[in-house]
Amino acid sequence: MTRTPSLVAGLVVLAASSLAAQQRPPIVSVSFDMLPYSSLADPLPGTAEEDLKVSIANPRIQVNLPIRIGRNGALVNSFSYSQLNFNYREATAPGNAPDQLHALSYRLALNVPMSERWRFLAFAEPGLASDLENVESDHLRFQGGVVFTRRLASGGSVGVGAAVQNNFGQALPLPVLNVDARSGALRFDLRLPRSAGAFLRAGSGTEIGLAANVEGSHYRLGGAPVEGRRVRYSVLTVGPTVSTRLGSVTTARLSSGAAVGRRFEIQDADQNELRSIGLEPAFFVRLSFDFGSRGAAGNGKDAAR
């Protein structure tokens, strides 16, 4: 039996700690990723896969409901939903390839000050990643962790911690490292192994930069003809990004560039790989909005998302 936890295994945990670590996250965040049609990188020779093209659309929404604790603490209830839509053109999709995948989760995060410069974050997040057909208990997943963050004199911060998740059928301990370094109008944001970026404040409430972001997850499939099987999807996006404040509590962000390393691995119920399907590099566009955030676009807590 093959069990190969990859870089994707840590993405959901680190994404959770990244947003939950914000002292005042936006009340509502919505985004939409569009990756246009591209060919398979490794089609089966002599089959219709040589003509197949695939596009991917990825809408996401998250709602954060903070409850104030003391002077500077918060208990944040977060609800999130994302969807992966695969569209196929010119030929029949490869066997067992998905059409639509869903991820839902609830996160409870406690974020409190320990001293003038130190903060403590603990979070727990049950969720579901599935095609939402014949949902069973093994479609559920859980993750949790703790992060200690120190505020720097420059206005940035460094956070270290640890997390545990069992999205891949076994408990995996994972390190958490978040670095927000600033120098004048420049800001460097590093959230290993999920994202990295460099940003420049270009005016009041506006920021431009370059970001790299790795995303992905592991989904259980219950619908025929793939009952009991799984799909692991991952993608790396690299390109410029610009964010700007619209009014006092709304931030808009536009990112574009190259989507590389796109791959979904189809597995059986025991995580034995049945097929690994890659897609050729393609252009991507991501549009996102944060509502209810009091921070300017230039504070950049999630600019590399």
Structure description:
This protein has a 14-stranded antiparallel beta barrel. The chain is mostly beta strands and 305 residues long. Residues 1-21 and 295-305 have low confidence and may be disordered. It is 3% helix and 62% strand. The protein is globular. The longest helix has 10 residues, at 11-20.
State the shape. globular
The beta-strand count equals: 15
Alpha plus pi helix count? 1
Run of helices and strands:
HEEEEEEEEEEEEEEE
**Could you name the ranges where pLDDT drops below 50 across 5 or more consecutive residues?**
1-21, 295-305
Question: How far do the termini sit from each other?
Answer: 34 Å
Q: Give the biggest beta sheet.
A: 14 strands, antiparallel, barrel
